[in-house]
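cron nightly-structures :: item 1 of 1
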Amino acid sequence: MNVTILAENLTFGGVSRYCLDLAEGLRAYPDVQVTLLALPDRRADWLLRAAETREVPVQVLPMRSTFDPSIIGRMRHWLRERQVDILHSQGYRSNLIARLAVRGGRLTTRLVCTVHGLHYSSAVSPRLRLFFMLDYLSMFTSDRVIAVSRDTCGQLMRRGLQQKTRVIHNGTVIPPPVDLEARRTSRQALGIAPHTKVVTFVGRLTHQKGPGALVDVARRMVSTMDNVVFLLVGDGPCMEDIRGCVQDLFPRVRLLGRQDDVTPFYTAADVLFMPSLYEGLPMTLIEAFAHGLPAVASRVGGVPEVIQDGVNGFLCEADQTAQMCERLEKILRDDALRHEMGAQARRSAETSFSIAQMCAHTYQLYRQLVSSQ
């Protein structure tokens, strides 16, 4: 079975990591030959470097502009030449290119797309809104649509995609349990004392991630707890606005920028904080659970499918910053509660959100499609 996974871009983020993890994990199946394709990104090359490290074959399709019509022919040629059985896309550009190449060329390649979320900011440009609409309207031409959460699946079904949609949760690598020495080393590298309480945020600094709540909660918490530090790991269009709002709180609130390896920040942390306004199924949350971190997060999208409120973390309403502060403080002040929630978080990742499970379910979906031809 010849599989091509088409990534939307080369930028560090949850979708790119999903494509890379899936491409790597599928190599465990001897009847699968998998190649990772990516659309170009002038600002980044993270996916190229990460794929090289993991020895995953990757190629970039040249494009002269954001949506270059000539890419359709090049994609069609790629699929014919390599006799690709499954083309798996995600993101509006890669979805539209895949569908136009396959359906317009009357190829036998089966189309799969993964929908990582259906919430789009009202601030997007009319042009981008048009692409989102075209992506949705053409979704009916896919053979299967993977929803990363039951919440996303429900939205797709309400839009008429009942027969095509399947839920396959995102997965992550389950690392060895964090030991005290690794925790001490990570904290020393960051200049954080052993008994300081550390709240970590990991993600792109965009409107989606709730930057207003992030800043408000950090400011309130450092004023009420004298031993708490916030680590904000990530970059994005809201970076400079956030920097201006928290610069007087340094070093207790630290903007650390984009990091290719976020493991040390999970290792150093006591709790993950995720005040998102909307989500599909956030990779950051699953990764944090795999590292034994409890979380305080907004009750949005697929987040309640990961967090059992009061068991492995706390759920809050997206606009309730006072509630977020209260839940964070409860976890940080109660060591026994925090350790038990962290242990439950890791068990959740092991039993429900591993890469092996994600790849096994995706492989089964591919196999069913190829067998039905």
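cron nightly-structures :: done
The first helix runs from residue 14 to 25.
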